[in-house]
Amino acid sequence: MSVRVKVCGITRCEDAAAAIQSGVDAVGFVFWPQSTRYIDPNLARHIASNIPPFICTVGVYVDPDIAWVEETARVAKLNLLQFHGDETPEFCNQFSQPYIKAIRVKQGTDLLQYAERYSTAKGLLLDTYVSSMPGGTGHAFDWDLIPKHLPLPLILSGGLNPTNVSMAIQRTQPWAVDVSSGVEISKGIKDEKKIFAFMQGVKQL
């Protein structure tokens, strides 16, 4: 079965178009105001309005207010929510859209316990633990820390790029991969050639 791909941190129409032309399955909009990849909900809505059918739009949050999630999801017409903070399962479950839960992985992280706690999530997104950053670090974590039989779909993130994505997929057998900094010229600005090369790395398997 083919591995799904999400390009996250989209801030421009041309970047979304390049990602879709390359064959991605989802694009992510960061609605955490402290992020250098933050996007205004109205701009996200404009970009989403030009996305063809069957491409998933994902909103990314870090410990948001309920009202902010509801507003951005409505304005940008999101299909899926992605929570990167310390949100509880009860918090994540209260919205109209389904959600995925991001876990920042380090030595000692019990991913099976997280999978049980967030059993209502559509998947677990595994990212690299960096104390000062909830995501988008550009660094990979030790893939050997991933259990072989994770009971939720695995979305692999953290330090993926065109040169290592094939190896990452072979090693971890994920449902999907998520990339942001690995296909950028600068933070929030994607590189069409890097996106294409990343997708080639995914498809060659």
UniProtKB/TrEMBL annotation:
Q: Which CDD domains match?
A: PRAI (cd00405)
Q: Which GO terms describe its molecular function?
A: phosphoribosylanthranilate isomerase activity
Q: Identify the InterPro entries for this entry.
A: Aldolase_TIM (IPR013785), PRAI_dom (IPR001240), RibuloseP-bd_barrel (IPR011060), TrpF_fam (IPR044643)
Keywords in alphabetical order: Amino-acid biosynthesis, Aromatic amino acid biosynthesis, Isomerase, Tryptophan biosynthesis
Q: What class of enzyme is it?
A: isomerase
Which pathway does it take part in? Amino-acid biosynthesis; L-tryptophan biosynthesis; L-tryptophan from chorismate: step 3/5
Respond yes or no to whether keyword Isomerase is given for this record. yes
Q: Which reaction does it catalyse?
A: N-(5-phospho-beta-D-ribosyl)anthranilate = 1-(2-carboxyphenylamino)-1-deoxy-D-ribulose 5-phosphate
- The UniProt record lists the EC number as 5.3.1.24
Any matching Pfam family: PRAI
Work out whether the entry's keyword set contains Cell division. no
One biological process term from GO is: L-tryptophan biosynthetic process
Q: Which domain of life is it from?
A: Bacteria
Gene3D superfamilies, per database record: Aldolase class I
**HAMAP family cross-referenced by the UniProt entry:** PRAI
Similarity section: Belongs to the TrpF family.
The protein's name: N-(5'-phosphoribosyl)anthranilate isomerase
- The organism named in the record is Nitrosomonas supralitoralis
